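A note from the maintainers: we've had questions about how concatenated examples are separated. There is no special marker in the raw files; a new sequence line simply starts the next protein. For clarity in this README we add a label.
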Amino acid sequence: GGQLVESGGGSVKTGESLRLACTASGFTLDRADLGWYRQAPGNECEMVSTLTDAGTPDYADSVKVRFTISLDNAKRTLYLQMNTLKPEDTAMYYCAADFGTSVVAVPTCHSRAISEYDYNYWGQGTQVTVSS
């Protein structure tokens, strides 16, 4: 098997930046559809950014322009550069990878819209806290 491990979270002030990393072990990420998700207390999980296996990014409207998703496959690491952070960005951030196989993974980021069939792997999350 393999796993995803997130890192890079922390506590920052409004307007500051963080770079999250999601490192894979046991597989490479270049042929996967990848995603960053987040969940704030009391809220459902929401998509932050995705990157298709063809390299096409997508972003939630709330983070467009401020966040950038990227992949360094040599390092087996997916990044999320987060600039101009706001208090509403406070959440646990999770990465996920889908290779289109039959591997089932219970999401660590919880939403009625996300099922165990959507991604093959989920990380355990890294906390981001933004204070004003």
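[label: protein 2]
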Amino acid sequence: QAQLVESGGGSVQSGGSLRLSCAAPEFIYSSYCMAWFRQAPGKEREGVAHINSDGSTFYADSVKGRFTISQDNAKNTVYLQMNGLKPEDTAMYYCAAAPRGGPMTAIQALSARPYSYWGRGTQVTVSS
């Protein structure tokens, strides 16, 4: 059973918006930092956005200025607000959690290696 549960995916036209949600159990949310990844068919999984427990964030260059990661501590939930969606944003989007430790660089935070919990993903499809 997946510990992280994503929702909010769907199909939109280019320029549209979606908000993804990731619900985590308390034992993960309170001890881990969270991120969103995506994987398009035939491509490697790539880091999209990361948020630390102090609210600081990292973003992939391809989504800067369009996507926003945020968290609601009362709901143990992390969000990914996606605006200005493009066809190249089409992918399965995954939520992931990495143990909190020392500060991460952007490269570390957006690579899959530190992450030990993953959701099953939610599909985002953007049509032109």
